[in-house]
Write a structure and sequence with these properties.
The structure is a homotrimer. Chain A is of the alpha/beta class and about 325 residues long. Chain A has 13 helices and 9 strands. The two termini of chain A are about 30 Å apart.
Amino acid sequence: MSNLQLDANGRLRHFLAIEGLNREILTEILDTAESFAGVTEQNVKKVPLLRGKTIVNLFFEASTRTRTTFELAAKRLSADVLNINVSVSSTVKGETLLDTLRNLEAMHSDMFVVRHSDSGAAHFMARHVRPHVSVINAGDGRHSHPTQAMLDMFTIRRHKNDFENLTVAIVGDILHSRVARSQIQALNMLGTGEVRVVAPRTLLPTAVEALGVVPFNRLEDGIRGADVVITLRLQKERMRGALLPSELEYFQLYGLTEKRLQAAKDDAIFMHPGPINRGVEMDSQVADGPRSVILQQVTHGIAVRMAVMSLAMRHAGEGETD
Amino acid sequence: MSNLQLDANGRLRHFLAIEGLNREILTEILDTAESFAGVTEQNVKKVPLLRGKTIVNLFFEASTRTRTTFELAAKRLSADVLNINVSVSSTVKGETLLDTLRNLEAMHSDMFVVRHSDSGAAHFMARHVRPHVSVINAGDGRHSHPTQAMLDMFTIRRHKNDFENLTVAIVGDILHSRVARSQIQALNMLGTGEVRVVAPRTLLPTAVEALGVVPFNRLEDGIRGADVVITLRLQKERMRGALLPSELEYFQLYGLTEKRLQAAKDDAIFMHPGPINRGVEMDSQVADGPRSVILQQVTHGIAVRMAVMSLAMRHAGEGETD
Amino acid sequence: MSNLQLDANGRLRHFLAIEGLNREILTEILDTAESFAGVTEQNVKKVPLLRGKTIVNLFFEASTRTRTTFELAAKRLSADVLNINVSVSSTVKGETLLDTLRNLEAMHSDMFVVRHSDSGAAHFMARHVRPHVSVINAGDGRHSHPTQAMLDMFTIRRHKNDFENLTVAIVGDILHSRVARSQIQALNMLGTGEVRVVAPRTLLPTAVEALGVVPFNRLEDGIRGADVVITLRLQKERMRGALLPSELEYFQLYGLTEKRLQAAKDDAIFMHPGPINRGVEMDSQVADGPRSVILQQVTHGIAVRMAVMSLAMRHAGEGETD
């Protein structure tokens, strides 16, 4: 996997998962995102880095929110963007993923941003694209959502500078969350002091310690002394599977309130990948409170995606003669 | 409401309703639209006024026609445009309007063009956006559709120059029409000689005279001597509610024909917000006749929307340092 | 029809069908596409030819694949593109095709790319647009799909240089295929040595020889000695109409395999308009084999559409004074 994401010089070529990357690459993404964070605050929010490039948002799962951030990131890099929602198009005619890929590639697409319900779909594409084409994983099954993890790292670094002395608690359905998986890997790769996961036993993977985390079942224990508290979005469809109590019961056990958050450090920040279920994962006082950085996460999402896109396309202009 | 739409210097900041504006602002919009009308006739129909700005078409009600005119207006001002149809996206996941707004804002959106089935949705958003963000109402419930009213004013002014001596008749379902509401306010604000409304009693608001109009129930009476005849689109779903007779009966009572229009002035113009139900609001001879300015309304819609967008964004480049 | 597609100087103005054009025009399209093929391989894949022009993709039938190629072609010519899927918009409100056209035209659209299930829809529009507006047919009913035919011609010319000495075999449902119709006309107009059609009797038009083709019922006979073998996409819905045997039986009789293709010339190329039904029209060994040029067809589709668009818009900058 390491080879697949990096080029011969060890530089980012595809961005598929945190796994297989290294601290230098993650730091380069964060540093590059820092420079783009300035661009998005300018009066004219565009840089010509990817002018004339064609970026295809290839979404096999609907997600307006994620698609929108990638579309904005691409446009602010001056690329041309094609949005393709595959559920309503060629797969209807029985075309395979590989044929769809080959066809879009034949139109001289330069980059695919892929979301798919199957774990491994982005890797599959990366293994099959032509040498100059890059693939960015925008979420695949339960496996990985690496740009979400990196915008979270960016947000943490902006507030806390250094990962070494931090205690970060991730609260919610760890078992089914591709976001949690990617966050845990990134936090550990960046050398975070302690990474905790907080969930009922039914929502923790077996032998979760092997991921490099400390598990907790009680919320108050898990967030005690934490610098960063990340809550995951509750997938309501899990309720039906009897893995979870009711929404109300979930809130009573794991929902963040100002009172409960007193257990965390005074200057702790609170994060959530959005969209929030108010009154389920947290109450509005926390969501909209002074230590919530949830909207900053959204803002940073654009800068981080611009960074990943431009780094992965760095090679594009090099080997060519015109 | 006046304060909400205007900045501290009394200049346009949001465009939510005609109500609360004043004749100077309306005239400034019309004058600015006049300059953009030239742009849309050029060979290269683009001006760089809003380059690097992000304009979000946030449509909670489907309307290809209105969305298209805003999208074209934004592109001709060189802005980046995001089309978001909210019925099929984040509201499905239970996100509130305010959360949707906050998230899009966090992506450094500069302007929201909003259509919503709830009256007041655009005002709600304008009350909550950050200082540099503008909101344009593209139709909210039965309340207001101010850009439609302004393109109508622009069309009237181009043909008749002065509002003072005009008699304008609005024909159709006044009671349920946000277009009529906005037209009446704009016509009165611009000092129109006489504004008439023509409809069956069931489709007129009670005490309609308080809006500054003269009501008529018979078409021939209402359009006698009129300089401008505006017919509203018949919402067919009203039929079911028994507020209206059949389409055929409606046409017999209120449908415009060349014969009937002889009651209006010889140089009267005929308008309709589109799309036309031919054989219901008017026959094709009128719709396509020499005094119909219906397609000019569409053309003017682009120029007027460019004007509103650029005026509302005038502040954007001023208070910022980079 | 000839007059409708050409301007007073005999130059391309609309592109509706191969019928009515002539060898000079087709050759000019192929030569122009040759120059654009270079553009799509450049690092910055854009030319400013249609900057400030508005191109409307007006699709009354869903087709992500065809729409995408036109959208990319337009963007690489620097035009602004509007995608309008009419089935979900104004026709719902009962607007006629002509009213839709008039409205989009009133927004100063410069070109319509039209796909419609009714044969003749593009011609209808071309007869009604304003003098400066061009119409491109992106497929109308069973009638015509001329840009597909031209990208096929471009692909053949790139591999075989000259049409005069070629034998080209078209295999599949000739009777219902707008692609086959356009291909046959283009091949004959360009002076192809022999054009063959290969299909069961039920899928051949009566008196098919009048189209300038030699009909065959057995695949092996039809492709014997061929330089080019084009297979058509099998429309699975035809199965139900009992015009076709099962998919498996179709493959046994008409499916291309390496073994069968030994009957064709050694350097024969294999083409398909896509998307392929693997195991129906051909097996994967053929589709992905060294003599398959199917993906090149997709690539050439962009260049050919850029050529058609820019030639049809050539007049746009000439008569205007700005």
